[in-house]
């Protein structure tokens, strides 16, 4: 089981400190809610974990080993997958092609389409969702596109999955499906960072809460020690 440690992360831009000395742990089989107002530093933190930005100071470690997250590929190789609020997918490709983009199996210059669809289907079946690996992503709804991003991470053996406002464009039935997937991943030992402004969601899902304010850590609380009023 892999344990993610965020240690004194700081990110400075000209004239602005977006993060200052933020530290917390993300444990396997555990949902950590990351909360705060707009501008609190949540997106900056996710961009560092996703290899899209380098921190000005601080470390990100996995099982005590410092990670060099200098690109999205490096983050994926370290077992970290960010599911952005707007999925980063190629609309003209199939689900399976998106899931395995950049490492499509081929032989003699030809893509082995059956192999990529079987690999994708294995993960789809594992998390218990209905998703056709051969469907073109541009024909899918918002909920299914979110699931494609999750499947992409699991095909890459992600052990830390960060979900950024994942229910913002979902209907209630789709939200329930997503929650079911999250519960299954928690049982499988995946560490989940869940970013949301919606109190009912985080109080239902989260095992712990990390709250940022103006780029700094405002507090960390376990679920048993918090209710909506104290969290606000």
Write the layout of secondary structure elements.
Layout: E1 4-13, E2 16-26, E3 31-35, H1 42-49, E4 57-62, E5 65-66, H2 72-77, E6 80-83, H3 95-99, E7 106-107, E8 110-111, H4 113-127, H5 142-155, E9 160-164, H6 172-187, E10 191-195, H7 199-205, E11 208-213, E12 216-222, H8 228-231
Parallel strand pairs: 3-10, 3-11, 6-9, 9-10
Antiparallel strand pairs: 1-2, 1-4, 4-5, 7-8, 11-12
Helix pairs in contact: 4-5
Would you mind describing this structure in some detail?
- By secondary structure, the protein is an alpha/beta fold.
- The protein has 8 helices and 12 strands.
- The chain has helices at 42-49, 72-77, 95-99, 113-127, 142-155, 172-187, 199-205, 228-231, and strands at 4-13, 16-26, 31-35, 57-62, 65-66, 80-83, 106-107, 110-111, 160-164, 191-195, 208-213, 216-222.
- The strands form 3 sheets. Strands 6-9-10-3-11-12 form a 6-stranded mixed beta sheet, with helices on both faces.
- α6 (172-187) links the parallel β9 (160-164) and β10.
- α4 (113-127) packs across α5.
- It is globular.
- The mean pLDDT is 89.
pLDDT averaged residue by residue: 89
Report how far apart the termini are.
32 Å
Write the element-wise H/E pattern from the N-terminal end onward.
Answer: EEEHEEHEHEEHHEHEHEEH
The coarse overall form would be globular
Structural category: alpha/beta
Estimated helix fraction: 25-40%
Main sheet attributes: strand count, strand direction, barrel closure? 6 strands, mixed
Q: Strand sequence of the main sheet, in spatial order?
A: 6-9-10-3-11-12
Q: Work out the helix count.
A: 8
Rg from Cα? 18 Å
The total strand number stands at 12
Low-confidence stretches: none
What portion of residues belong to β-strands? Answer: 25-35%
């Amino acid at each position: 089981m892999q344990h993610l440690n965020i240690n004194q992360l700081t990110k400075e831009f000209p004239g602005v400190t977006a993060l200052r000395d933020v530290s917390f742990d993300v444990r396997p089989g555990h949902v950590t809610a990351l909360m705060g107002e707009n501008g609190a530093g949540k997106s900056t933190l996710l961009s560092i974990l996703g290899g899209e930005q380098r921190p000005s100071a601080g470390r990100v470690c996995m099982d005590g080993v410092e990670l060099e997250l200098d690109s999205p590929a490096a983050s994926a190789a370290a077992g970290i997958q960010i599911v952005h609020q707007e999925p980063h997918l190629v609309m003209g490709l199939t689900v399976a092609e998106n899931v395995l983009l950049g490492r499509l199996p081929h032989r003699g210059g030809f893509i082995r389409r059956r192999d990529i669809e079987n690999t994708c289907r294995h993960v789809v079946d594992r998390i218990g969702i209905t998703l056709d690996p051969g469907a073109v992503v541009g024909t899918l709804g918002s909920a299914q596109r979110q699931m494609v991003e999750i499947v992409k991470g699991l095909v890459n053996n992600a052990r830390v999955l960060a979900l950024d406002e994942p229910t913002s464009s979902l209907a209630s039935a789709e939200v329930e499906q997503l929650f079911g997937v999250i519960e299954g991943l928690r049982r499988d030992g995946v560490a989940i960072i869940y970013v949301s402004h919606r109190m009912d969601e985080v109080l239902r899902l989260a095992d712990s809460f990390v709250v940022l304010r103006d780029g700094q850590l405002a507090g960390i609380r376990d679920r048993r020690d918090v209710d909506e009023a104290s969290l606000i």
